[in-house]
Amino acid sequence: MLRTVGSLLRLGRGRFVSVPPFPLWGLTCYSSGGAPGGSGPQGPAGKVHQVLAQHRPSQFDKKILLWTGRFKSMEEIPPQVPPEMIDAARNKARVKVCYIMIGLTIIACFAVIASAKRAVERHESLTSWNLAKKAKWREEAALAAQAKAK
User: Fold this and answer.
1) What is the pLDDT of residues 89-136, one digit of tens each?
2) Model-level pTM?
3) Which chain positions lie within coiled-coil regions (predicted)?
4) DSSP state of 10
5) Counting beta carbons within 10 angstroms of the beta carbon of residue 27, is it exposed (0 to 12), middle (13 to 18) or buried (19 or more)?
């Protein structure tokens, strides 16, 4: 992919600089079948999907792969998987977590509404709590002033 990219780099105000293509000499490429080199299976257009590296999934990655439905059990997960598979599983897990958080937020909103309705029925409000608290402080301050005066 990088070999076919043009060799001009724009520096602003219409000036271009010639840049040699990116060398891929030291990188090992694998086809989608996991076979080294370009001898793997080719797609309908004769194009080989290349994966530059394999990734060894951590325990957390394995749990994400299970939770998103990529594999049915821990034993089915191979020792190395393509990074694209882990990225896709993480993205799917991120979306699921967001949906769960949205649902919990909506449930919490209804709980707060129900709690506020019950508080209104008991004639409780933040204003009445604040006035009662300040009256208590004034009373304590007055008792402290009387104790100092004696």
Assistant:
1) 999 999 999 999 999 999 999 999 999 999 988 888 889 889 999 999
2) 0.51
3) none
4) E
5) exposed
